[in-house]
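User: Can you write out an input/output pair for a complex, sequences first and structure second?

Assistant: Here is one pair. Inputs:
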Amino acid sequence: AQKVTQAQTEISVVEKEDVTLDCVYETRDTTYYLFWYKQPPSGELVFLIRRNSFDEQNEISGRYSWNFQKSTSSFNFTITASQVVDSAVYFCALVGQGGSEKLVFGKGTKLTVNP
Amino acid sequence: AAGVIQSPRHLIKEKRETATLKCYPIPRHDTVYWYQQGPGQDPQFLISFYEKMQSDKGSIPDRFSAQQFSDYHSELNMSSLELGDSALYFCASNLAEVDFNEQFFGPGTRLTVL
């Protein structure tokens, strides 16, 4: 079975602080993909990044960066110099290549950035 | 670029009524997925279709049924609605041979059951 754990239910920071959202996953598939989605209060799911299991390179996109470590089954997400517009629920998700194509989501982390 | 279209965006129903949610995938996409997200919850997979055939099934209640039509759009039919069916319903699509592991999400349909 596949599982995604986001241990942080809620995080509150002050604008311009850096914040890291943790994601730990479990899968028996050797090939799998990890995702991060942002869900603002309006409700839509905004795709942020996809990473496959063979690519452990860290990625940076503007103020966002991701750290993928297979050794610890983690795929953490860091926002640098947070802004009020970053306030949202962030979901980490996993899809394996062992038959089912469904995305398995973590419970989400609600990030509040205060001015 | 064209995105996944879901209609209606908002729907209010009474208990025991029926509801039909529609999903129009991105043009040329052959696979559709449905997810249900209850208040404060993560999205949960319901069902998926590939080339008009059901390809996978999650925790979808027997009161729900779905299908994918010849034009690849999909409909989720929900009968005998219960208060607990109030949720955000997402549809996602992809082109299986190309985007196997990436699903493009629609904006969601917010269903409220009173």
